[in-house]
Amino acid sequence: MAVNSVTAGAAEFVGTPLPGRLSRVLRFARRKPVAAFGGLVVILLVVLALIAPMVAPYAYDEPRVLDRLQGPSGAHWFGTDHQGRDVLSRIIYGSQVTVILCFGAVGLSTLVSTAIGTISGYFGGITDTVIQRFVDIWQAFPGLIFIIFMVSVFGSDRWSLIVVLGLLFGVGSSRVVRSATLAVRRLAYVEAAQALGASHPRILMAHILPNVVPVVIVTASVQVGAVILAESSLSYLGFGTPPPFPTWGRMLQESRQFMQRNPTLAVFPGAAIALVVYSVNMFGDGLRDALDPRLRGTR
């Protein structure tokens, strides 16, 4: 009945007025300060992506030949690259790619994993067997090689990357949703709904999905960090969003031959990737502890 407790807690949270929600947030921050810091970094990343043109000191594609490969200074806080472009501005604009690709891919992954996991776990039998064998085949492909192959065929624009990354992570994470669905399907109220003649779509929508939502949320929060690393790896290998729009992975790739002259070219984009991935993982870990009553007070 732990899943029911999670659902009841989530419903109570939705119906709580703003002061109550604020107290819950403050209580979460006191109990999980590292997770709260991770959530704050994620919020700042989204805000930064939305207001990038207003806060970036320079345009991301504005070359200044006389200012090539300068270190951090008052005019360029993070220095300049081999074309004289401001590194700080390119990192700020690169956050837009990170937010769009990651949240788009995670959103698609959540839809795919929820659909596959709930259908497979609820119906069971031959349906579950066929779906799980397909998942086994899908997971047998090396992830990065599969992404490079798909991007080479369909292109490396943002929508293609979102679809490829969303499908890749969605099919694999459906196993987690399936496990939660198997646990919910055996509960008494689901059996009672079946005995009363409720249709399968009604049972799925009214009884199964609300109880697997916490699992879906936690899985999605953890996937954000993995998608960021995958997108950075693709950009580093030259298969990411095409130039001139900056991405943190491409900034690392472009800095390789200038590392001895200006090491900060790799330090700042690498630090941005590490900070965001760490923050997302810590926030996802704290969110899991908060949504799963079996983990409350155990850490």
Key features of this structure:
12 helices, MetI-like fold, mainly alpha, disordered N terminus, 299 residues, elongated
Protein architecture, described:
- The protein has 299 residues and is mostly helical.
- It has a single domain, classed as MetI-like fold, CATH 1.10.3720.
- It contains twelve helices and no strands.
- Helix 8 runs antiparallel to helix 10, helix 9 crosses helix 10 and helix 10 runs parallel beside helix 11.
- It is elongated and about 80 Å long.
- It starts with a helix and ends in an 8-residue tail after the last helix.
In CATH, the architecture is Orthogonal Bundle
- Characterize the overall form: elongated
Rg computed from alpha carbons, rounded to a whole number of angstroms? 22 Å
The number of distinct β-strands equals: 0
Determine the strand fraction and express it as a percent band: under 5%
- Determine the fraction of residues in helical runs and give it as a percent range: over 70%
- Euclidean distance between termini CA atoms: 22 Å
Please name the CATH topology: MetI-like fold
